[in-house]
Write a structure and sequence with these properties.
- There is one protein chain.
- With 197 residues, this protein is mainly α.
- The chain has 10 helices and no strands.
- The longest helix is centred in the middle third of the chain and has 28 residues.
């Protein structure tokens, strides 16, 4: 049996392989063999660390959420003003472009919601984290006088999340909406809602 630190490293490598294989093949066509081939190990070796493909995907889903969750919160917390925090939150919540494999994969994981209680919970957790982040920035901005919201704070926060998700999906789908378009449109909504960016 692998030592704990070696075992943890192997599990991380499997998750990285799963994310890459899913980005290459898509979740609908992904198999345990695909993940094993990407990781350069046998299916049996994968099953030493995980019960099945679903267990790998749940952990990969949770790992992918870190980027738009904890890492974005860290970026936002480095900013000093509510205006800068909102701008950073908007920028960090969007994919880097159509080839942003991790963000595309997170959108694909949304499709698994309704089919797996674990994926359902992860999708809801990500939504709650997004909403909490925007709500906190808006509350802070109102309290400091930087923002003068034109509507209910909760609705404004919900709309920011909805715009981020919708534009992000269009970006990774390779449509006509660019990252710059999405950023500009979300910032315009925020300005119209009384939250300067």
């Amino acid at each position: 049996m692998a030592r704990p630190n070696t075992q943890q490293q192997r599990r991380l490598e499997v998750i990285d392989a799963a994310l890459q294989a899913a980005a290459d093949r898509g979740l609908r066509h992904l198999s345990l063999t695909d993940v094993a081939n990407q990781a350069g190990v046998t299916r049996g070796a994968l099953l030493y660390y995980y019960d099945d493909l679903e267990a790998i995907l749940v952990e990969a889903h949770a790992s992918g959420m870190q980027r738009v969750g904890a890492e974005r919160v860290a970026l936002v917390s480095q900013q000093e003003t509510s205006v800068a925090k909102l701008r950073t939150a908007i920028d960090a919540g969007l994919p880097s472009g159509p080839d942003d494999a991790l963000m595309r994969l997170l959108y694909e994981f949304d499709v698994l919601a309704g089919k797996s209680p674990l994926h359902d919970e992860l999708v809801q957790q990500l939504y709650r984290e997004q909403l909490h982040l925007y709500r906190g920035i808006l509350e802070e901005g109102v309290a400091s006088g930087e923002f003068a919201l034109t509507g209910p704070l909760e609705d404004t926060a919900m709309n920011l999340v909805a715009l981020e998700d919708a534009y992000g999906l269009h970006i990774v789908a390779g449509g006509n909406i660019t990252v710059a378009d999405a950023r500009r449109a979300i910032r315009l909504y925020a300005e119209q809602a009384g939250a300067r960016t």
